[in-house]
Amino acid sequence: MSEEKLLAKNPNAYANYYLEELIEAGVVLTGTEIKSLRNQAPSLRDSFVDVVSRKKRIEAWLLNAHIAPYSHGNIWNHDPKRKRKLLLHKRELEKLFGSVTQQGKTVVPTKMYLKKGFAKIEIAIAKGKKKHDKRETIKKRETEREMSRALKRSI
Fold first, then answer.
1. Could you give the angle at the alpha carbon of 147 between the alpha carbons of 144 and 149, nearest 5°?
2. Choosing a second label site near 141 at 20 to 30 A (CA), which of 7, 32, 52, 79?
3. 8 A C-beta contact, residue 22 and residue 121
């Protein structure tokens, strides 16, 4: 089993979407970005994945992910919210593109981590939750908490 260091989780992905399938992807980063990742945590809060098709080539891009500028960087430091290309196999890209073209499906990043020294991102094919679904999950969570509290008190 390989050693993974969790860098960031996307709390909005779990709250706002039904996650259907998880896929691991590599991320193309500059030198200052990987150094910054090792020092401080990135933010995936408002980030999303854009899957585009150009001349028979399908590409996936990570947008709005915030990686802070490297503290010891110089004038060639990176833009914190730049587009970052995701590295996936062709069949995975085709699967993502097919699911995105279906109505109501999107691709969201769930977590970013380092694996064997390389930055990886876990993305999920997801379907958006309606407002009443979000309320339902909150109610379920609250009842589970109350039940666990009651069990702890009884012991």
1. 110
2. 7
3. no
Domain ranges of the chain: 4-129
Distance between CA atoms of 76 and 87, rounded to whole angstroms?
24
Q: Each residue of 106-140: pLDDT tens digit?
A: 899 999 999 998 999 999 999 888 888 888 888 98
DSSP 3: -
- The CATH code of domain 4-129 reads 2.40.280.10
- Cα(144)–Cα(42) distance, integer angstroms: 31
Distances (CA, A) of 134 to 23, 119, 154: 24, 31, 31
End-to-end CA distance of the chain: 37
Q: What is the pTM of this model?
A: 0.78
